[in-house]
Each structure stands twice: as C-alpha cells, then as structure tokens.
Amino acid sequence: MEKIEIKFIRYVKIDTESSETSKTYPSTAKQLDLARLLKKELIELGVKDVIMDEYGLVYAHLDGEKDLPTIGLIAHMDTAPTIRGGNYEPRVVTNYAGNDIKLNATYTLSPKQFPHLLDLKGKTLIVTDGDHLLGGDDKAGVAIIMSIVEYYINHPSIKHCPIAVCFTPDEEIGGGPLHFDVKKMHADYAYTLDGGPSWDINYENFNASSAVVSIKGVGIHPGSAKGIMVNASLLAMEFNAQLDPDAIPAKTEGYQGFNHLCEIKGDIETCEMGYIIRDHDEKKLHAKEKEFIRIGQELQKKYPTSEVKVTIIPSYKNMRNYFDKDKTAINAITKAYDKVGIKYTFSAIRGGTDGATITYMGLPCPNIGNGDRCCHGRYEHVVVEEMYQVFDVVKALLEQ
Ligand SMILES: [Zn+2]
After folding, report:
1. Is 171 a catalytic residue?
2. Residue 75 alpha carbon to ligand 1 centre in Å
3. In order of start, what are the domains of the chain with their CATH numbers?
4. pLDDT over 90 for what percent of the chain?
5. Sorting pLDDT into bands at 50, 70 and 90, what band is 195?
C-alpha cells in the first residue's frame, strides 16, 4: 500500500485555494485538478462506483457487509484563501527534537510560539516552506480516506461496513455542503476528517448569526451643528460601547460565545457595522441578538432625528441539538477509538463545520481530527503518526 504521507504530499502540491469573492462553483477551477486526480486514482484502484458531478464533488462507494450500516467519510479538497498553497515541496522532519524549525529565512516554527510542539518530540512532521500554507486542512483527511479505500481494495477478504466517500470543494468559504447530495451519498451516518489532533472528536459547533447595524446620521456644517448634528460614526461607536467588552474573540475560549465586529465603514451621514454573533448555547445566542436589537432601539429613542436599523441574519446551528437525541454516530466512533486504544477527547468547535450543515440535511456527521495543526497559515504542520492513528480508528469503525 502506498504510504499515507506520499499521497498527502502529492495532494498538497496541487493548489486548491478557494476564493471568497468568486461567483462560480466551485469558487476556483483549480480545485477540479485535485477532484479529477482523486477520481482517476479511485478508478485506477478499482473502485467501480465513482462519480465526479457537475459541481466538482467526488463520490465513491465500496460494497461491504449488507447487514452493517453504510458509513460515510468526507473531506474537503480546497484550502483556505488566507495564504497561497500548492506548487511547492513541503518538508518532512523526521524524529522531531522539540527544537525551532526554520521554515525559510524569515519564518521559524518554534515551540516558544506553539508550545504543543514539545509534545510532538520524536514524531515525523510535515511542514511548509514558510511562504505557503500546508493544506493538511483538509488534504490529511483526503489522504487518510484514499488510503482506507486502497486498503480494502487490496484486502478483499476483510469484512467491513459499506463505505461511502465524498470529497467536497469550497469548505473554507462555507460552500462545502451547498451541492452535497445526501441521496447520492446514501450513508446511514458519516464523519468529516478535518483538522486537529487524531484523538479529538467534535459534535458541537457554534450557533451562528450575523448582525448588520446601519446608521443614518444628520450632517450639517460643524460650525453650526449644535443640537442638530448626529454623527453616524460616533453613534456607531456608542452602539459598540454598549456591547459586552469581554464577549469578543480575543477574550473568549471554550464554550464562551462572542460578538465580533468584522467591519465598519462610515462618515457623518452614514455608518454601517457588520458583526458575527456566536454561541454554543442557542438561548445565549438569541440573548445576544436581543441585546443588539435593544441597543438599537435605545439609541433610536435617544437620537430621534437619526435612523438606527439592526438586521439579524441567522447563519448555521450547533449540530449538538441533533446528537443529543441520536448518539449512534458518536457511540460508533468512541467504540472505534477504544478498540484501537486511543484516549479520545471531545471538544466544541469554535466555528462552523460542513458536518453541522450536512447533519441538518439529514445525514448525521460529526468530525474527527486528522493530525493537522495550526491550519490556515505558514505554520501549519501535520503529524504523520497521527494520520496513521486516524487510519486505524477509521478501520476499526468500519470493521465494527
Ligand atoms: Zn477544514
């Protein structure tokens, strides 16, 4: 069997950066280069049921024991549009000593900045050249899933669940599940293999909405403005000052939610602020939304000649709401970790995940780690041994 890291590096070298500003799907045509390669490799492995649909999603199915559930494995092909990826040779650091790794003349991956590196002593790391991201998010997931398929094709006597595979584009710009077809996938439950340590399971994510605060002020010559001018930008600052100053991304972690001012543009006449609102607890999310509306109404009353408008736009929901009622997928994966002898952890994602949307589309889909760290930037690195651990866990899951 081809080594997982060999597959991984092959996929990393293909640039699949998605784009937030594109109007096409997938957002960048280059993602299809990887989609086509995966389709070709699956067919060459001997998988009979392989489809690449008109949106660039690649589906594949492997038959298994008829009385066992069909288990889905999902990974995304694109990389984050934060920094470029692909078209370079990532570096393999064997038997990591816990030291500084010089990525290039300017950038160093150091345990001083990233203390978790000290726990990775003795491991094999794959790192960047300092100018690109690695794309372990989520090509580590892609490589592990491709290895699983290859393994069962090469070992036809090993009994396993029917397997449904899907590789999606545009996850990083929130478009992963946009054209995901639950029927084409036809799995009983599924897992995304996306980001983080090999032992981490995620079935909670934020509930999310956004708020647009639009303010119309009253403009007049500042020399004769007394009692008349309402400066829209100052009003915006007054609005923001009434929000909880501790409920911002830079001061929160774990289960603490936040309001995040993403953009502000304004002058005296008009000012608009765009916020995202996040909380794992749906009630707390709604309380935060109500606070936006309350502040808006209060300022409207205080400045009757101005116009203060608050619009709340719901975004995505915490998939925990589903898994509180049906733990089948969670129990199956924890059993697999137990079987392999890896102590697993649960952590709540401080963001969204394709799996949450897919869960609400009718296919329960928690996430498990893929061995990647520090994603979306030049410091990203993958722990090779952890990719193999995830491989073992998935194998145990499929041979339940
Ligand atoms: Zn990802």
Report:
1. yes
2. 8
3. 4-204+318-398 (3.40.630.10), 207-314 (3.30.70.360)
4. 96
5. confident
**Model confidence at 353: pLDDT above 90:** no
Which residue among 15, 17, 41, 78 is the active-site one? 78
Q: What is the pLDDT of residues 161-180, one digit of tens each?
A: 999 999 999 999 988 899 99
Asked about 78 being catalytic, the answer comes back as: yes
- CA nearest to 194, candidates 374, 375, 370, 390: 370
Ligand 1 centre distance from Cα of residue 327 (Å): 23
Q: Whole-prediction pTM value?
A: 0.89
